[in-house]
């Protein structure tokens, strides 16, 4: 049965209201994903398997991917819900409808979360916001986590739930690298949970200027109705590591070598 204009309008309002409530209730749980917060009094709690004790390579890979995959899927679903809400409001603007205060508030919160200056709500500004609010292929996230954390055995994964080597720049916000060069002040961020690390990593790719190419390429593939895959996006991570092209090549090789487990 077709949905009339009134029905679609009511549905869009319900989605917006639900989305605003969801975002408001999630704000507290996302604090651990911010990279400039001071170190909390209580150390992070990790419920990860003891990956170092798993001697069989296949078992270790399966355990590692099985541990992180549900977190990645949950965070990606959260992002896609946000995206669907913005799409509803974008469609309404295209139809010449005005947005109410609740809807504008929702867009303001999302723009703040995705670090986009929203001077005015226009079709173009929502296109810019949609370029940032989008999922990252789980296979890419898993491979990069394996690379950065040594399959969950690194000091930063064990002591800080940091599976992606993310830095922070407030004293006490994380763990001081043993190999940090003189004159540098960065630390490796500490998270309350592995899921907070995943959420922060996704936000980093979706907001940091260093990954503008990733977001643009992802949008192009979306507009062309082509699948956005790990193979497509990994080459845009050239600025993620000082090793640049060598780092990208290593990730692509890991992706190829671990397809049976992804």
From TrEMBL:
<keyword id="KW-0732">Signal</keyword>
<dbReference type="GO" id="GO:0004040">
    <property type="term" value="F:amidase activity"/>
</dbReference>
<protein>
    <submittedName>
        <fullName>Bax protein</fullName>
    </submittedName>
</protein>
<dbReference type="Pfam" id="PF01832">
    <property type="entry name" value="Glucosaminidase"/>
</dbReference>
<dbReference type="InterPro" id="IPR002901">
    <property type="entry name" value="MGlyc_endo_b_GlcNAc-like_dom"/>
</dbReference>
<dbReference type="InterPro" id="IPR053195">
    <property type="entry name" value="Bax-like"/>
</dbReference>
<feature type="signal peptide">
    <location>
        <begin position="1"/>
        <end position="28"/>
    </location>
</feature>
<feature type="domain" description="Mannosyl-glycoprotein endo-beta-N-acetylglucosamidase-like">
    <location>
        <begin position="134"/>
        <end position="259"/>
    </location>
</feature>
